[in-house]
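User: Show me sequence and structure for the first protein, then do the same for the second.

Assistant: Starting with the first protein.
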Amino acid sequence: MNNFKIIIYGVCLFFICLSVSIIIKVKFGVEGDYLSAFSTLIATFVAFRLYTDWKVEHSLNLLSESQKSMKEVFSKLFTDFRSVRKMLNSIDAPNVPEGDNRWIQASQELTKLFNQLNRAKFVVFEYKSCLKSLKDNEILEAHKIKVDKLSDLLEATSNNFFEKLPLYTGNAATAEKSLDLLNSCEGSFLNLDFHGSVVLPDFYYKYFKSLK
């Protein structure tokens, strides 16, 4: 709440107390220290507003930190995705043992990418918990729907990796199959990167503006 509104409410409270004091004095002949009562009311009101403003600021700070974690993990996911895909493209399956050696390296990177996907799921879960602490409005509700869809996308992509990619087995001959599966997931990784770089900051500024 801005200072102007606080002043307006303060003036209103003053006139209410003044009016009550005049009515009581005229009607019942009762004297009272109504200025002190007014001061008490003002102090209580200001304390309440300061506490409310602090809660809002604290929630926005938590939101900012949570979004920062999501942006970092999504950005790293997309970078790692491009890196391991490039590595798989460089494998020459008929060239043994060099092809097999490169597959071992690529398999290790695929495992890291899979682990990063799992980490992203936990980060999104924490983010959804953070959203629950915010004051509800239409902007927040629309964003929650987007985050739920994002969570489903992460889960599906992670399951796809676990079920179809030979993370710990195979040889250079399986590189092409792994590359095809990785390419089929490109849209998912692009979506995650877009969410982190565009959707999150867009929500933050719109939600922040809606609180004013």
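Switching to the second protein now.
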Amino acid sequence: MSEVRFFRFAAALPIAIPLVAYGLLAFSSALPAGVVSWLLVLAASLWIGGIPYALFALMTLWLLRERPPSTYRLIALLAPTMFAALFVVGQFIVWIYFGASGPINREFLIFPAWCLILGYAYLAVVFIGLRILRRFGAVDDARAVV
């Protein structure tokens, strides 16, 4: 598999992992409380940011079409920050649309912070996975766009 294809598949992780978390929460009753807490965070991340992330990922992948792997690596490193910034803009638009009746609440700070925390955690998984797959020859170092 090419590195570009790997990054295209990896863009689905922030949707796929919370779906697995939902499944574990729904079908496993004997999980430790700490595990349940993290599964709830992951599941909530899909509920709160799933649609905005899906739109962001699709737009980003469309803009990256026919770009070299180095561009994918660079954008991957910037993506959590870009998504958090867009998420703040989206929150502000929703806040204004629904009347902006009170002060901006703490979610304006909490949700973007979680975007960064989870985004860079996913990114760590992606780059560790890339390194492991390269070591086993599953991802080649060819610089051709696929």
